[in-house]
Amino acid sequence: MSQMIKARCIKHISNHYSFIIDGVATVVKASGKLRLGLSPMVGDWCELVKSQDEYVIQKVLPRFNQLIRPSIANVDQAMVVTSLFRPDFSEILLDRQLMLIAYENIEPVIIITKCDLVAADDPVFEHVRIYEKAGYTVLYTGKGYESESILNQLAGKISVLTGQSGAGKSALINRLDSSFQLQTQETSKALNRGKHTTRHVELHQVGEGYLADTPGFSSLSFAHCDEHVCAYLFKEFAPYVGQCRFRNCLHVNEPDCAIKNAVLSKKIAQSRLENYQEIIALIKEEKRV
Ligand SMILES: Nc1nc2c(ncn2[C@@H]2O[C@H](COP(=O)(O)OP(=O)(O)O)[C@@H](O)[C@H]2O)c(=O)[nH]1
Ligand SMILES: [Mg+2]
Ligand SMILES: [Zn+2]
């Protein structure tokens, strides 16, 4: 009697897939043509059947999202690593990342780094608070900080890291898990060997969660975005769906716009509307070329 199990794919190199089976990473070879049409991706939940001591991939279970670069399915959250200082906190850059992440149906989490370099009463925190007020999860870290809140946030989920170069992604990973440090060094060494090095995506266990070893959302292009989908993707815009005079309102030049009214009554920050409008302008521009 063959036994069917459900397991998650955490690594894929050519026709070898690694699944976590009973808590252990186990390589499963895809034998011939999978009877499914859909090939497993890292992050996929699959049904496996054991036949003669070997597991066979039976079926890829439905995905709730799918990233292209890195190629991962079922990404629960994207950790947007954002520094307060060197590089300076940039709301426009943060807003662009938040929009692209939401567009992929992924939950963003903002991780503020380098808190140790900034006084607790620094005005920059007023800008950060806009995001807390808007409903985003914001976690704070810095050199010498405990990682408990971040580890808790990663637990039980698949996460990708994103953020500007120099924001502190590598430093954060090393703080979260010292064994990951080796892996990141190996990865960058492999990358330096040139274009012919095979790149593969792998999920690494960090605490009780999984973190992709390649960052997501490195290109900040909006060419693939539909502006009407973007119109309510900022968290604090969502409660106003259906309240603008025009059903397809883009909150730019339209009269009786609920989002613009919410900015006037200080329920939504002016900077968020402006950055949103800039994204809409970008999308229209990218569509023209
Ligand atoms: N003081 C301080 N320095 C940090 C922190 N995070 C990163 N750095 C420094 O900022 C620089 C860039 O960090 P890195 O992790 O390489 O950024 P990445 O490009 O996002 O991977 C390095 O010199 C780090 O030592 C932090 O929380 N506090
Ligand atoms: Mg780095
Ligand atoms: Zn509107």
| Poorly predicted runs | 191-198
Question: Mind describing the biggest β-sheet?
Answer: 6 strands, mixed
Number of helices: 8
The level of helicity is: 25-40%
Task: Say what the CATH topology of the largest domain is.
Answer: Rossmann fold
| Overall geometric form | globular
Tally the structural domains.
3
Nearest-angstrom radius of gyration? 21 Å
CATH architecture of the largest domain: 3-Layer(aba) Sandwich
Strand order of the largest sheet: 10-9-8-11-13-12
The CATH top-level class label of the largest domain: Alpha Beta
Global structural class: alpha/beta
Query: Hey, roughly how much beta strand do the residues contain?
Result: 15-25%
Classified in CATH, the superfamily of the largest domain is P-loop containing nucleotide triphosphate hydrolases
Which hetero ligands occur in this complex? guanosine-5'-diphosphate, magnesium ion, zinc ion
Topology summary:
Blueprint: E1 4-13, E2 16-21, E3 24-29, E4 45-51, E5 54-60, E6 66-67, E7 72-73, E8 77-83, H1 91-103, E9 107-113, H2 124-134, E10 137-140, H3 148-154, E11 158-162, H4 169-176, H5 178-192, E12 203-206, E13 209-212, H6 227-230, H7 258-264, H8 270-288
Helix pairs in contact: 1-8, 4-5
The site of zinc ion has 7 residues, from helix 7.
